[in-house]
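Lay summary. Proteins are chains of building blocks that fold into shapes, and those shapes determine what they do. In this project we predict the shape from the chain. Here is one chain we studied, written as its sequence of building blocks.
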Amino acid sequence: MIAIAGAKGGYGKTTVTLGLAEAFADRGRPTVAVDADRQCPDLHTVADVDREPTIAALDGETNVASIAKGVWASLASASSPHSDPTRRSIWRPNCLGSDRQHALFVPQASTGDMAKVSIGLRGWRFEEDAVFEEDGSLKPLTEMPPDERERILRLTALVGEPCDACYIEHGDNAIEQCNVGSIVYGEPMGEVLLCDAHESDFLYWFRETGGEDMAGTREMANAFQAWFDDGGRAPAGYSGIDHVEEAPDRLPAFDPEIQSLEAELEEMDESEREALDVNLSDLDLDI
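And here is the predicted shape, written in a compact code that computers can read:
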């Protein structure tokens, strides 16, 4: 048994788990990967298998093979930051034994009816109960967990800004030709902000040129931008990804309320800002 763990999100636990499971299976070893992340379970999304049944269905009489979902190891790729249906072939086995080895996946149980949602930009996803009150309004900054608070604050500076790749192409002199960014990848202050047209360039860089080695670091943005500025581009027709939301009908739009967070910060005194445990000078906010 191998446990893949980490105290912070976005550092590649799911990617490593998927890669190890498929690598072992590809070498002929029966492999089962179980998602034990109660806060942000997403192995099923990255492995591109059904959400149900989950680990909650296991008991003393239920065999893991009856709820596991399989991906043909020879057709799967561990280098994608998200699932890519054009590069995978899904097969759901009836048992662990097979003439052809495959990796099996067991999703984590849902934590109630809370969904992971995007706010303002696709990419960064939040547990609803971590950032929203029951009435749908944003929680006060002091009541948000540190990671979510940092990302929410950074979003206030990113929404409406030009796509990084467009800006490299056009610069300040022709900034009106830049598309507005619609998706964000990476860590706050090391994020890549992209429009739909340039997302495939980032995914190609991440998957095929070693960009995944930068995942979880603040150097990722500089590395991608340098590659793009040097003429790096995805081949024509390179596939993007299908963006999956567990509850798309409940996806909040970018509400003007989130833009009021800078006003909330301005009203705080120095001790209250320090209590947020966020380096505000790093987040490029107008306060």
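What the prediction tells us: DSSP finds ten helices and eight strands in the chain.
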